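Hi all, long-time lurker, first post. I run a small reading group and we've been trying to get comfortable going from sequence to structure in the token notation. Rather than ask abstract questions, I figured I'd post a concrete chain and ask someone more experienced to write out its structure so we can walk through it together at our next meeting. Sequence below, copied exactly:
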Amino acid sequence: MSAANPATQYDSFQTLENAALALDADDPLAGFRDQFLIPAQADGSPQIYLCGNSLGLQPRRTRAALLAELDDWRDLGVEAHFRGQHPWLEYHRYVQQPLAEVAGALPNEVVAMNTLTSNLHLLMVSFYRPSTDRPAVLIEKNAFPSDRYAVESQIRFHGFDPAQCLIELEADQADGSVSLSAIERAFAEHGGRIALLLWPGVQYLTGQRFDLRELARLAHAAGARVGFDLAHAIGNVPVELHDADADFAVWCSYKYLNAGPGAVAGCFVHERHARADLPRFAGWWGHDQETRFQMRPRFVPMAGAEGWQLSNPAIFALAPLRASLEIFHAAGLARLRQKSIRLTAYLAELIATRLAALIDIRTPADPESRGCQLSLRVKGPRAEGRALFDFLGAHGIVGDWREPDVLRVAPTPLYNRASDCLRLVRVIEQFMALSLPAHG
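-- Answer (accepted) --
Happy to help. Here is the structure in token form:
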């Protein structure tokens, strides 16, 4: 499929149908869709679920994974820590290798624990070390609110004023994205004051993907530490954290990693910090495993990311993550990325061909600068965009809405198809015909 001339790529319904059928027939990952439970519409047909960027679908194997741990608890009680199908004492390590695969990390650089913002605070304790000369944190202007709240509170905690020490970089591109040159200019202007760069792997509102390696290079060259929020990147695009040379990263697991609502999160700490004497908030489960049960008073951290753990693993939260990561391992990240590029390009071409009178795509066009998410904006007042969102929901199409006026859709390669993208476009065309004839 060529994306060279979208204006003529899909200029007839037959071409639309043929392209969707050809893409779906040529999909080596098509069978993975059957490993997920897709919510049904009122008539029993499956929804067109394009919201994996907000909450991933439930893998069929999740129920069995949870029931297995409930059975061990029932049958073994406390002994399930040491016996059973997956002894609980080591349970966080069952996800370590597959989590390292999706994070592009070494196994000892990752750990599943807590929630994203909790992990962000814990790692900022270690990696945001402000001084009078270097107190600032650089983030993007439209950072996800939780990140901004966390950063602002950390600045205040250290006795500094966010009005002076929180640097928020405005988007400089017409589509709302941030160019690398804008980030370079920010470091040229403020680099001597920046203690930490905290940046997303994929920006939640625009869907823009960033070059983590280049961002880490810029930050380190300026004498700053760098951390990444990968909430919208992990399981969506390659992140290669170890080679990118990030100091740390955090993510949630309920979006593309399909671990369920409020799922256990994860974090990365580069191996160069594995045994560093860094300040941290310590907990029992981060203590050296060999002497943990000797109950000694002095904290001795485990080497690697595990040393930032506080409490024993939440087994019923880790089991769904383990189930989902098994699917990722079987599918293969390279194949998932190939399908994602092709599927999102197909949807983008459909929108450019069929819906240009109504919709702007606010996500970069370059496949290397985006994941599977497309952020859409209706040309017109906010009320028209919201009306479209409601119309889609009434027709069994699930995306999500982000204020002030962005409709996000994400054809997720594990369970979405080209025919899902086509159905989305067809329903929007119905909306145009019924509600906005001027755009027809």
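A couple of things your group might point at:
The chain has 15 helices and 15 strands.
The mean pLDDT is 94.
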